[in-house]
Design a protein that fits this description.
Structural class: mainly alpha
Number of domains: 2
Number of strands: 0
Bound molecules: heme C
Order of helices and strands: HHHHHH
Largest sheet: none
Number of helices: 6
Radius of gyration: 19 Å
Distance between the termini: 22 Å
Shape: globular
Length: about 250
């Protein structure tokens, strides 16, 4: 367990040596910045020159936004009665209450389950649900036309998973994007930030209720996947909110 965490830290250090940054892009956090990134599932076939993704591996809804956001024509719709994650167009993972979260003797705030904004990420990245499993579909999309396989981000090579092709031979390996449901080796999430009101001297006090001025965000005073990652900003490697060498010290003093 500890081994993967130290591997994580080593990777962070390695990454920090070779990242290019654009701070202006952080400030100008646009909304079309998803286009052309790994989270843009529309036009993926054309982009990478295969016919087997949009419409085959997963349903092509014709809009890159609806894989996460409630479609604009259903604006204000509530996804929760259908089992959706509050405010998002994704189902709550069935594994919601069985994630193994990071724990240690030194952890200040223990957590039982991830918050909605992190469930959003896990609904694809835990590898248990198809990437196209959305609560609402855009108007005009006909389920009768759907012949897709609804594949999952999962490194196990079987017919339910993107790893059918994304095994490092047919296409790049997807296993590293498969976080799984055991989060004990990943950075802790969904805990109250330990540095609020200088509560813990190992942590910096945030610049405001939103988080830190370099873009690292707190959600309802908590640390979530999106505290460190911004899926809307591809300028920093692996969608981080700040260069890896500065990311950790945004919060950690030592
Ligand atoms: C992979 C999931 C994902 C996709 C796809 C996606 N978004 Fe987002 N979007 C997010 C997340 C997460 C946030 C919250 C980011 C934050 O807190 O900084 C967000 C925030 C936003 C916001 C800011 C509004 C707010 O609630 O603060 C807008 C506007 C937005 N997205 C528009 C879009 C549009 C337009 C598209 C399609 C071109 C799109 N998004 C695609 C995940 C996604
Ligand atoms: C609708 C499914 C879906 C959702 C929801 C989603 N992702 Fe992803 N994510 C993907 C796919 C697909 C990839 C690309 C996998 C590949 O190419 O190997 C990816 C890649 C990534 C990467 C790697 C990017 C890179 O440049 O290599 C990061 C980091 C990431 N996602 C973080 C997040 C975070 C944080 C959230 C929640 C705010 C999130 N994702 C929500 C599907 C999703
Ligand atoms: C029939 C084979 C096949 C299947 C199934 C498949 N892909 Fe792909 N995918 C490819 C090929 C080939 C490429 C282009 C080469 C590469 O990027 O490795 C590609 C590229 C991609 C890219 C673009 C990477 C980039 O650099 O922009 C993403 C994102 C992606 N696939 C996601 C997925 C996801 C998510 C699934 C499962 C829902 C999936 N693919 C299923 C064959 C496939
Ligand atoms: C404390 C900051 C932090 C938090 C919280 C965090 N990540 Fe990351 N994440 C990173 C860093 C740094 C990297 C790059 C180093 C690495 O690959 O381990 C990364 C890498 C990734 C990758 C890409 C792996 C690769 O190498 O392509 C994905 C996908 C990802 N994170 C998703 C998530 C999801 C989903 C969550 C929430 C469950 C999350 N992250 C929470 C900092 C964080
Ligand atoms: C948004 C603020 C934030 C960022 C950025 C951040 N961390 Fe953390 N980290 C925390 C909090 C909060 C805890 C849990 C502290 C507690 O509750 O005791 C934590 C815990 C940890 C732990 C577990 C310590 C223990 O007591 O078991 C490790 C290891 C860690 N972080 C490493 C990193 C690394 C490496 C990075 C950079 C990739 C990073 N952190 C970035 C806020 C952050």
């Amino acid at each position: 367990m500890k081994q993967r965490l130290s591997q994580f830290i080593r990777l962070v250090v390695a990454l920090s040596l070779g990242v290019g940054v654009s701070f202006s892009a952080l400030a100008a956090e646009g909304t079309n910045t998803i286009l052309g990134t790994k989270h843009d599932f529309t036009g993926l076939n054309k982009r990478v020159g295969v016919v087997a993704m949009s419409g085959v591996a997963f349903s092509d809804y014709g809009s890159p936004c609806v894989y996460c956001h409630i479609p604009p024509e259903q604006d204000g719709a509530d996804s929760t009665p259908f089992g959706g994650i509050e405010g998002w167009n994704r189902f709550r993972p069935a594994t919601e209450h069985s994630y193994d979260l990071y724990n240690s003797r030194t952890l200040d705030n223990k957590v039982k389950a991830p918050s909605p904004i992190s469930l959003l990420c896990l609904s694809c990245h835990d590898g248990t649900m198809g990437v196209d499993m959305t609560v609402f579909r855009p108007n005009g999309w006909r389920s009768s036309d759907d012949a897709a396989m609804h594949l999952r981000i999962n490194g196990d090579n079987n017919t339910m998973n993107c790893a059918k092709c994304h095994n490092g031979r047919v296409a790049h390996n997807i296993a590293i994007k498969h976080i799984g449901t055991d989060l004990t080796n990943d950075h802790p999430i969904s805990m109250r930030y330990a540095g609020l009101s200088s509560a813990d001297l190992d942590f910096r006090e945030p610049d405001g209720p939103y988080g830190f001025d370099n873009g690292v965000k707190l959600y309802d005073e908590r640390v979530e996947c999106a505290s460190c990652h911004n899926v809307h900003n591809p300028d920093i490697q692996v969608l981080l909110r700040d260069r890896a060498d500065r990311l950790c010290e945004t919060c950690h003093i030592k």
